[in-house]
Design a protein that fits this description.
about 650 residues, mainly alpha, Methyltransferase, Methionine Synthase (B12-binding Domains), Chain A, domain 1, Lysozyme
Length: about 650
């Protein structure tokens, strides 16, 4: 979008002398706010009065003097800008100031109107109620104690009050200590240990020793196993070691377990089994059996299901899912695998009764459920197309105009927040009109995000856009790749944001890591290559499709494995196979990394939808997933003089 159009978005309908460069004025105001140059901020704000982004500079002005801003000024801003996420953000900023100042009366008056509540403000609200003599406040505060993570400072007075009033028991402290240690948060555990009375406190230096070198700790056992503290430290060292070496941890445990109580033994086996399952250790299921009686978390039970799937032990799949919380059991993954377990055990009617409603959901498990029922894969027909008048009206919405202006300036975080706030309460027709606006402005990730929110009316051309198809088709053809699969991967990698950059440095549509880009560029003989070229459409797709084809050729020509390799590296994708051939859906389900597991499932699901959109020969999700060869099957993670990225 050119600067004339950006200015039009900023100043639409405004009858006063326009700033020479409204984009520059806004960015200058933003920088002035960041550096605390308030006179410059105010000068730029004056130039932007009446523009689409006036609320943003007004917010900066108020926030810069939040300590002196009066309630009327803050509420006035909120009332004038209910269609902007800034209204709720300013309310939250004000509440934080009031909470830190312990100005409880205005806090309690304003807090109920906050939309996006967080733990910090929730604890301030409980402090306020406690200060006013609300006897229920402490009871409501207690659930915040049971967290593996550090809680905000606003929660600490509540924890102190719980302890002082005898509402925080020694066992409560042990429970949270275990949660912190299971998550590897040693610093949190140290803080929690301070709540122990008297001599029960765990020595901080022993926690560090167990965390840093569990083998050395277990070899010498510098603690007294007749004390709870000594046993808990030993258990921590055991499952710390089990994260990388479950068999070695089990060997230590077999020599120590008789010195622990029955509950502690069951707990330890549950921890060892969990870590073994994540390492695909064949002993995981038998260790889970030894954990009978232990209260396993939903995460531990999820990995019991996955261990059972790899062993094709359908009764264990069913029993582990049945032991999950009701909320977890309702997740689409566990509904699907429960249905499969029932059918595998001859309960076809019961299994199909679960699959039928699941098959209506547009996701990986919904597609698998439909195929289990014998329903051919396909995209729903377009059930609604917004009119041109609806699209134009949506585009003129002030909040939409603000979001577009931010997007065009490259301020994606602010643009996404503004866009998301605007969608609240929209019906399906309005959502599709908004998605169409985003697509017309080449804002594909918001088009996808918005179209996916519809419940009854759908347009899959908005959920699965296909921009740059001339480039994509040619590059996919040259690389010998399935175009639908390439699109499915790009949709998951970047949602077609060319300038996308991940936290670890991956860039462009196909999110290439710098090392991978250099490696491919060298193999292709690209002269004068530099990292600045990676975000260019042609270069990025050329490099990305080459690497995707490379890993595909070396991983049994199996798109499922190649997808996993593209995200996590070829060596890991190879190591995640089992000793025997495995159903592709089970391989995908048992990928140890949650991010990669979700990534692989979404890419393969996307490929089905794109294949249907492109009119390709019908290929079901199960066919795309295929069967993964056993570990003795042919596979090569390199084969060249120079190893591919991820093959080390």
């Amino acid at each position: 979008m050119n600067r004339i159009l950006i200015a039009a978005i900023f100043l639409a309908g405004v009858a006063f002398p326009a700033a020479a460069n409204p984009e520059a004025d806004f960015l200058a105001a933003r920088e002035a706010f960041r550096t605390g140059d308030i006179p410059r901020l105010n000068a730029r704000a004056e130039r932007l009065q009446g523009s689409a982004l006036e609320p943003f500079v007004a917010y900066m002005q108020i926030l810069s003097r939040i300590k002196d801003a009066g309630p009327d000024e803050i509420r006035g801003f909120i009332q004038r800008n209910p269609d902007s996420y800034l209204s709720d953000k300013l309310r939250a900023d004000w509440l934080r100031f009031l909470g830190k100042s312990q100005n409880w009366e205005p806090f309690l008056n304003e807090y109920p109107a906050l939309v996006n509540k967080d733990t910090e403000l929730a604890c301030y609200a409980l402090q306020a109620r406690l200060a006013q003599g609300d006897g229920n406040a402490l009871a409501e505060a207690k659930p915040y104690w049971f967290s593996a993570e550090d809680q905000p400072a606003s929660c600490l007075p509540l924890f102190a009050a719980l302890a002082n009033n005898g509402l925080l028991t020694v066992e409560d402290v042990w429970v949270r200590l275990r949660l912190a240690l299971e998550a590897g948060n040693v610093s949190v555990a140290k803080n929690v240990a301070r709540y122990f009375p008297g001599q029960q406190e765990i020595p901080a230096h022993e926690l560090d020793r167990a965390a840093e070198n569990p083998v050395a700790f277990l070899d010498k056992l510098p603690v007294d196993l007749d004390t709870r503290a000594g046993r808990e430290l030993t258990l921590f060292a055991l499952y710390r070691l089990a994260r990388s070496q479950p068999q070695q941890a089990a060997s230590y445990w077999n020599t120590l377990h008789t010195r622990f109580g029955a509950d502690e033994q069951a707990y330890a086996w549950g921890q060892l089994a969990f870590h073994a399952a994540r390492k695909h250790d064949p002993d995981a299921l038998s260790w889970y059996a030894k954990a009978a009686g232990a209260r396993l978390s939903d995460l531990q039970l999820a990995w019991k299901v996955r261990a059972a799937l790899r062993e094709r032990s359908w009764p264990d799949v069913q029993s582990a899912i049945a032991a999950m919380s009701a909320t977890e059991q309702n997740q689409c993954a566990w509904r699907y695998w429960k249905a499969r377990a029932l059918k595998a055990q001859g309960q076809t009617v019961a299994g199909n009764a679960i699959l039928a409603p699941l098959s209506k959901e547009f996701n990986f498990y919904g597609q698998l459920a439909a195929e289990e029922l014998g329903v051919a894969a396909g995209n729903p027909s377009e059930s609604y197309k917004p009119t041109q008048d609806e699209i134009k009206a949506m585009e003129k919405t002030p909040a939409i105009r603000r979001a577009l202006a931010l997007y065009e300036m490259g301020l994606r975080y602010e643009a996404n927040r503004e866009w998301g706030w605007t969608l609240r309460g929209m019906d399906d027709r309005s959502l599709l009109a908004a998605a169409e606006v985003a697509q017309r402005h080449s804002w594909y990730d918001r088009a996808i995000y918005t179209a996916e929110k519809t419940e009854q009316l759908h347009d899959f051309s908005l959920r699965f856009p296909a921009p740059h198809r001339d480039v994509m088709q040619e590059q996919a053809r040259q690389a010998g790749l399935d175009e639908a699969w390439v699109y499915g991967l790009i949709r998951q990698e970047s949602r077609f944001v060319q300038q996308a950059r991940s936290g670890v440095g991956a860039s462009g549509l196909m999110q290439l890591m710098p090392g991978t880009a250099r490696w491919v560029a060298k193999r292709l003989g690209l002269k004068h290559f530099s990292q600045s070229l990676v975000t260019q459409l042609d270069t990025n797709v050329t490099l990305g499709t080459y690497y995707l084809k490379y890993v595909l050729d070396r991983l049994d020509n199996q798109p499922l494995l190649a997808t996993a390799a593209y995200n996590a590296g070829p060596r890991r994708a190879i190591n995640w196979r089992g000793p025997a051939p495995m159903e592709g859906a089970i391989y995908a389900e048992t990928i140890p990394f949650g991010e990669t597991r979700g990534y692989v499932q979404k890419v393969m699901s996307n490929a089905v939808y794109y294949g249907n959109r492109f009119g390709q020969q019908l290929l079901s999700l199960k066919q795309r997933l295929g069967t993964v060869a056993g570990a003795n099957g042919k596979s090569d993670c390199g084969g060249d003089d120079e190893r591919a990225p991820g093959c080390d």
